[in-house]
Design goal:
CATH topology of the domain at 125-253: Cytidine Deaminase, domain 2
Order of helices and strands: EEEEHEEEHHEEHEHEHEE
CATH class of the domain at 125-253: Alpha Beta
Number of helices: 6
Structural class: alpha/beta
Number of strands: 13
Oligomer: single chain
CATH architecture of the domain at 125-253: 3-Layer(aba) Sandwich
Strand order of the largest sheet: 9-8-10-11-12-13
Helix content: 10-25%
Shape: flat
Strand content: 25-35%
Radius of gyration: 19 Å
Distance between the termini: 39 Å
Largest sheet: 6 strands, mixed
Amino acid sequence: MQAKRVRVFKIRNETEVVEDDFVAEEEPLEVRTCYDDCQTFAIIMRTPGNDKELVLGFLYSEGVIDTIDDVSSVSIKSDNVVEVRLNKPLKVKVRDMIVNSSCGICGRAFLYTLNILKCNTRVSRDVIFSLPEKLKENQEVFKITGGLHAAALFTTSGELNYLYEDVGRHNAVDKLVGRLLLERKIPASNYIMQVSGRLGYEIVSKGIKAGIPIICGISAPTSLAVQIAEEAGVTLIGFLRGNSFNVYTHKERVI
């Protein structure tokens, strides 16, 4: 379980009750990259679980790897250390900071490697309307803690393929992208990504780099997210709640 039991004093009007409750786990993960030798590339604050997918997705978004063939092995050295052996020398600078769970500079390599998505993927309004509820229904740890973000991959018919939760919204997307790398499904040109929060550039850039043509969120996008979605040919959908949503870019994909 990705939740930890804590003691809580619950104040309700004039009453006070002491009960056990659950909070989402957040712990550091040391990412080591190895070629001739091993070095710490980054320390990621994350919710434990699916660390292999998280690290692969993170290294992909950072431009360290381009495909799963760039990776010789991924070793879980301990609960909080993952070692990735590469088939080629490291081509980007080792991070000199902790990547926290609300990091705003993740995916920095993306800005220099924007790829234009060209595919004929379309989706109906009814399928889009159905995604937030399906996401919520399958957020198992969120149901217990109320403290995790989620990213999910759906088919254009609305079938859920993968869902990952994490205290960091961008970590959840990295886990999803890492799974796609492992299954050699990049570019994921026939899928929709649905996220539980806002659509910042770091979220949208990771989706674009994975080749996902339709990206949806229940909250607002940022100006840079809209800009890069427009340039990349991605349909960006925000404020997806109930029977309404806003299409910010490339409405032609919505039928």
